[in-house]
Structures are given as structure tokens and as C-alpha cells.
Amino acid sequence: MKTTFAIAAVMMAASIGMPSTAGAQQAADAALMAGEQQEADFRVIAARCGTPAFEKAFYKQSRAAVAAGLVVKNRDPVQVEKTVTSLRRSPVVLVATQADCAAELKRLAEVQKRRGELLKGKKK
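Below the sequence we write its predicted C-alpha cells.
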């Protein structure tokens, strides 16, 4: 009886200490989706807060970043683009009021600047 209990205790301790492969896969999937969700959010914010010219320029650069693999590495850019498009959320959820737009546009301008440098580096 004591032996059965000891074996069960050891097995339970071992199973608690070992990471779940399903859990690891879910974490990897969540990391991939984070980049795609962020990109979708950027596009929505550009549309809500920016001028039509800004939105067009940001969208064009965003698509180029996806195609270059800057948003999600080691994955088909066509699939990433489809996922980004499907993850677009309501603009009101992301930017509640027009007063919030100034800060968001500043952040998007920084993203554009960084990406511009990265995209130029990829072309060389």
C-alpha cells in the first residue's frame, strides 16, 4: 500500500514538473497572434486618427512589412496578411475619443520611422 502511494506521488510530481506540450503550443500560437493583432490594431488606429493620405501611406508600409517578414518571422506572408485583415477590431475599442488620437499618431509615426529603416535595410 505504501509503495503504491509512493509511486503515485512520484508520478504526480513528475507530471507537475513537466511542461505540457499543448501549453507550449498555445503559448507559441499566442506569441504569433500578438504580432498580427498589433498590426491589425495599428491599421485601425491609422484609419481612425490619421488623414486619408496618412492612412494610405501607413497601410502601404504595413503591407510591405508583412511581406518582408517583419511582423511575423518564418511564416507565409500571405497567411499573415489574411490573419491581420481578419483581426481588425472596432476603432472605438482602440481609440475611445478623438483626444486620444494625438498620442496614437505619434506612436504610429515612430513605428513608421523604424519600419522605414528596416525595410530599407532589407532591400540592400
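The longest helix spans residues 21-49.
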